[in-house]
Amino acid sequence: MPELPEVETITRDLRGKILGAKILKVETDWQKLFKGPDFLTFSAAVEGKEIEGVTRRAKNILITLSSAETILIHLKMTGHLLITEDNIKVVNGKWEVDKESPLSDPFNQYIHVIWHLSGNLKMALSDLRKFANIMLLDEYQLKEKMSVYGPEPLEDDFSADYLRNLLKVTKKEIKRVLLDQSLIAGIGNIYADEILFESKINPLRAANSLGDDEVNSLYRNIVKILELSLSLRGTSISDYRDTEGQKGRYSDVRKVYKREGEACLAGCGGKIKRIKVMTRGTYYCPECQK
DNA sequence: TGCAGTGTTGCTTC
DNA sequence: CGAAGCAACACTGC
């Protein structure tokens, strides 16, 4: 799924494209994506409302409406949000992205929800695995739902001090800590591995075993890797695409993720190994990550 | 054919 | 009781 850099890229793009637009109509062929309220209630509540804000918290996209309610979209593993004027057609009862359109990548062809917006715009949710979640929350519910997340790693409340204090009180494997959204929001499986490689820390190390230098290095690399990926519009090793259906370029510069058996790019002579941490495929160099 | 998969949740087990 | 394990969600690609 999209992690922080991908979700942030999408959020920024959406802000430039749909802010101020009015939602005219919502259609779906998979009502189960709507996790509360149900689709009929959702569409009745949002139709006619104007989009007043688009923000991100953790891996959630938050679209605030003139009714003061907020549409929450979590893309999970394979969700895409596409913005288009007229490149989506119904073919044999299914939505299809026009073959001539820049959106026409095969991974964009799993459209299950369309928001028809003013200005002849459409926002489409394409999701191969149909794991995405769409919700509509009032201010209180939104606050509740967002209260479970730790600090945003690219905001001021995430500091080296915060990280040091966090790590010293747990002996959990460091990769588990990085993936725990209640401790730090937005890091997922790819960036956890990339951050640990850049910090030369073994993913299995107990969090409270890291020295000050290692914690400082980890802190710097969390910020550095996420910002680098953001500048390259995210990672498209698998299906990720932005709101115009285009790939991110961090995939080209990644060092370890999905590089099992390849030579370590730190030049230590080691070979990238794949293990499991928390059931997630984990890539690291046993030679230089200690 | 079989398994892994950029995520999260909720149930079960220890 | 908290932590960890694991299926579930649904489907494609290797």
Number of strands: 12
Pattern of helices and strands: HEHEEEEEEEEEHHHHHEE
> Gap between N and C termini, in Å?
28 Å
Question: Beta fraction of the residues?
Answer: 15-25%
Radius of gyration: 20 Å
Question: Which regions are unreliable across 5 or more consecutive residues at pLDDT < 50?
Answer: none
| Computed structural class | alpha+beta
Taking the sheet with the most strands, its summary is: 4 strands, antiparallel
Summed over residues and divided by their number, the pLDDT gives a mean of 93
Spatial arrangement of strands, main beta sheet: 1-8-9-5
Shape: globular
Q: Roughly how much helix do the residues carry, as a percent range?
A: 25-40%
Tally of contiguous helical segments: 7
If you had to describe this structure to a student in words, what would you say it looks like?
The chain is α+β, with helices and mostly antiparallel strands. A hairpin with a 4-residue loop joins strand 3 and strand 4 (70-74). The strands form four sheets. Strands 1-8-9-5 form a four-stranded antiparallel beta sheet, covered by helices on one side. A four-stranded antiparallel beta sheet has the order 2-3-4-10, sandwiched between helices. The chain has a two-stranded antiparallel sheet with strand order 6-7. Helix content is 26%, strand content 23%. It has seven helices and twelve strands. It has helices spanning 4-18, 39-46, 139-146, 160-168, 174-179, 189-198, 212-231; strands at residues 23-28, 51-57, 60-65, 70-74, 79-84, 88-91, 94-97, 111-117, 121-127, 133-137, 273-277, 280-284. Helix 6 crosses helix 7 (212-231). The structure holds a DNA duplex (14 and 14 nucleotides).
